[in-house]
Amino acid sequence: MYFSYSIIGKLQWGRENKKNILTSIVAISSLLTSSFINAESCTAIYSPSTGRLHIPSVAIEGDTSGTTFWANLDQLKGTNLFELLEFDVNPNNLACYSPTTVGETIDNSLQDGDDKDLYTITSPSDAGGGYMTVSVTFYDPDATPGLIIMGANAPEDGSTILAGSSSGTDHPQTHTVLFEAAASQSYKVEVNRFFGAKTYPLNYTLTWSFTSNVDCYEPNNTVGTASKISLDDTIEAYVLAGYVDNTNYLYSGAERTDDWYQITLDKESNLTFELLQTPSNFRMNMELWHEDHSILTLAAATAETDGALINLNMGTYQPGNYFLKLEQFNTYEDEKVAGFPEKPVPDHYNTPYKFRIISSN
User: Fold this and answer.
1) Contact, 274 vs 280, CB < 8 A?
2) Rounded Cα gap, residues 53 and 37, in angstroms
3) Which residues, in sequence order, are CB contacts of 273 under 8 Å at separation 6+?
4) Using alpha carbons only, how large is the chain's radius of gyration in Å?
5) Is the whole model's pTM more than 0.85, yes or no?
6) pLDDT tens for residues 275-321?
7) In sequence order, which ranges of the chain are alpha helices (DSSP H)?
């Protein structure tokens, strides 16, 4: 049986090398004044049956970056001292990266009915990507604007992501679209006259903005780039693949729709996967693989419906490295919004998924 309590103590380690431990003893409910890592009042998880202590978050004294570390310790028999087995940086913390705000407002005009203006917009390098919002407004009550979103090399390669107009809506002079954007990707935006306009030049305003989704585990689209995570920690990330290069569609099973994570077992452990939160428009799928990826899937589960959670006991496994793959099971229908607000912002644009892998011996 596991229980939580507060630990007041410090871990001593080598500042010059985070993974070169100099002293590996921590005393519960005591203060070691010669140490560097402060674990005051952090919530820890202790197993009396195994003597294993898991500290999910400790910080370096005086460090204002927000970086935290996790640690696993084993109790020294017959004492209240613990030997430090392993620790590493928590990837999902404030030091990951700050979301980038980028966008532009452009005033221009079309000179005649056949005129088309082409613009390039670029997403920042935020690893988790995000989504673009593009809107155009015509200042002629008889004119209806059209927008075409294309890949970086368009229009030569014909890679149209989405195309449409505000015709038939309650706001015929303004057309707004949204689409998933990968990190550091350029897209072409074409403004055209879809209908109407009796006089020229036809004045308009084009606005675009990028909304970042901070995902501290990206890039992790392949087993080779899997993000290391700690057992029992809650992981939060986004299901945003984003358009890349000149691909004009996304599909379930595409490499960039996958999220891979790595766990390491130092002893035989029984593992349970819990999907704690998921976007309401996605049906999530998980698979557990051995480090030899040629071996068949060890465990797998798919949510029953969109927005449903998963709780799966995956079985008992020997020490070693294991890989978890998460993806959304159903086809990608919400990677773009061809007309807003007639179609609302998809839930996965702003809602992350959360999961954890619980271990027991």
Assistant:
1) no
2) 16
3) 286, 288, 299, 301, 310, 311, 312, 314, 324, 355, 356, 357
4) 25
5) no
6) 999 999 989 999 999 887 666 689 999 999 999 999 999 999 999 99
7) none
Structure tokens at 82: 């613990």
Percentage with pLDDT > 90 across the chain? 52
> Residue 164 has which token pair?
């449409």
CA distance 12 to 325: 35
**Residue range 210-255, pLDDT digits in tens:** 999 999 899 898 888 999 999 999 999 998 778 775 555 554 456 6
- Answer whether 56's CB lies under 8 Å from 7's CB: no
* Structure-derived torsion over alpha carbons of residues 49, 53, 56, 60, reported in degrees to the nearest 10: 180
What the chain holds in terms of domains, given with CATH numbers, is: 3-89 (no CATH), 102-212 (2.60.120.380), 223-334+344-360 (2.60.120.380)
Amino acid code (one letter) for 33: T
pLDDT at 104: 97
Amino acid present at 70: W
Cα gap 222→208, rounded to integer Å: 31
The 10 Å Cβ neighbour count of residue 99 is: 14
Is the alpha carbon torsion for 163, 167, 170, 172 positive or negative? positive
Residue 361: exposed, middle, or buried by beta-carbon count in 10 A (0-12, 13-18, 19+)? exposed
d(CA 226, CA 85): 22
Cα distance between the two ends of the chain: 10
**Sheet strand arrangement including 259-265:** 227-228, 259-265, 320-328, 284-290, 299-302
CA atoms within 13 A on the CB side of 125: 2
Which among 325, 281, 318 has a CA at the least distance from the CA of 299? Answer: 325
Most confident residue range from 19-23, 24-28, 264-268: 264-268
In eight-state DSSP terms, residue 291 is: S
Lookup: tokens for 342: 């007639």
Helix (H/G/I), strand (E/B), else coil: 347 = helix
